[in-house]
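anyone seen this seq b4? input:
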Amino acid sequence: MSKINFHKTLQLDYMQKWLLIAGLIGVVAGLGAIVFYEAIKWSTYLFLGLGAGYYPPGPLGEGQPVVREIARRWMIPVVTTLGGLLCGAIVYTFAPEAEGHGTDAAIDAFHNKSGLIRARVPLVKTIASAITIGSGGSAGREGPTAQIAAGFGSVLAQLLKLSVKDRRIAVAAGIGAGIGAIFKAPLGGALLSTEILYLQGFEIDALVPSFIASLIGYVIFASFTGYVPVFGVMTQTTSLDPVTLIYYALLGILCGLVGILYPKTFYATRDLFRRLNWPNWVKPALGGLAVGLIGMFVPQILGMGYGWLQLSMMNNLLPLGIVVALVFLKIAATSLSIGSGGSGGVFAPGLFIGGMLGTAWWQVLQGVTHLPATPLPFIVVGMMALFGAVARAPLAVMFMVGEMTGGYGLLVPAMITVGLAYILVGHNTIYESQVPTPADSPAHRFDFFFPLLKGTRAKEVMTTRLPHVTPDTPVADVREMIFNDKAKGVTVVSEEDGLLPVGVITKQDLLHLAPERQNSASAREIMSSPPIVIDEEDTLDHALTLMADNEIAYLPVTEGENLAGALSYRRIMRSFLSMARQTGDQLEQSTQREAGQ
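predicted toks r here
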């Protein structure tokens, strides 16, 4: 008698299971990051390079921060518009859910879609995002990579018949593995997968699988691109003089204020495009045109912008007025590129905005005492503060930026800056699919019932009014039992073995039956078999877990091997509410007694 229909491969202990599953997710994350990395390179060469004669500078870990003259500046709007048009046509033809930033889509799948992601989405996301970024769209590469790995985790979980809970963990591990691989930041990526799901709180169950997947993804990607951090190795030390820490604190306030503006502008632009009465596939072209017109005069806002950050870290600074303008123009360009329906991430633009804000602040402070010799520390801390705040993931982003810059020497000032920015930004998150806490997530909707339900056995709550049939019972009779008697389901029992459950029929099984077979089919033809059952001595928390993991609302209860009763969500909820009221009354009486004493 099978209680959970898991694949045999998964009948392993926790570490064996997740070494296998997270290991496979990590392999796909690493290979997917390589494919996407190369796709962006070729797309940039074809669109910006051959089209406009513009080759953006790259960071030290991926090329050279060399500024080249733009041969055909007037072609930039043409290229960005063409890229937006192609992206829109691909996304809205094959997978409309691939529009926007992929990390948010993966978060939504975790909370609201039982960890389900269509298999085609990662492929569509890869192609569309490479075109968006390569044609000059202001977007990042982390979202698509996260969705590639998260999508594979979802598909793998479905193939191996994992529970809904484990499928969600596989999706979370995929988010961490994809981001950790593409940024060469395995520790930060793993932490991000647990922190980025909520405005406040962590998904602790995903931590170990994410560490495994992120590390494997990083090793595979870095073995192809090199192990040098994205922005090289930061060698400069920073002063921890109290005066300098005040400068970092003021930077945190600036990052907090700009951090409020970033998501508000992004979602206001997104909503504006959604209200626009144009075909959806055309809208990214309109956004691309607007970005291209800005990029003609300020090309630094095109693409990811890592090379321009690298130049600022090396003290090759743009004039202060341009740096300040870049902070706000990058927000506008990202909102137009992705908010219009284009495809790409919001992580890289967030790092760019924070880094440029740090650069501008360092330039403003010229001449004051105890100022670092170069803007590098302010750039790095600004990157951490702004995106750590708007992503509601301060701890993960601090570690991630540390890995991207090759050191953690700035953690002390970062804690001050990130903390202040995080407080100021509040709930103005760039990921709208985040929920406040684990208690607010559908993924944990039953977790907080369990302490009360653990002490109650199934036999104490189950109904003994047993609607049951044999395999040969006509469906018409089953229909009458379910609809007329308002039963949640009926249990199919063996004719040879008395009350041995062999299947279950619910209202959904009847609704899926073709009309022409309503009067001719038998119970045997539509029942779900083997049935998921629970023993009468098992507790209600176990029953609720079975129902949630297997997405069922009716659960037969057995005594030995024979049918003894049945449970439904309604009966369990009634039991929970009754126990909650009793507990509340007991607490109130206890409080009154203590007050009387």
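The longest helix spans residues 14-52. The longest strand covers residues 562-568. kinda curious what u guys think
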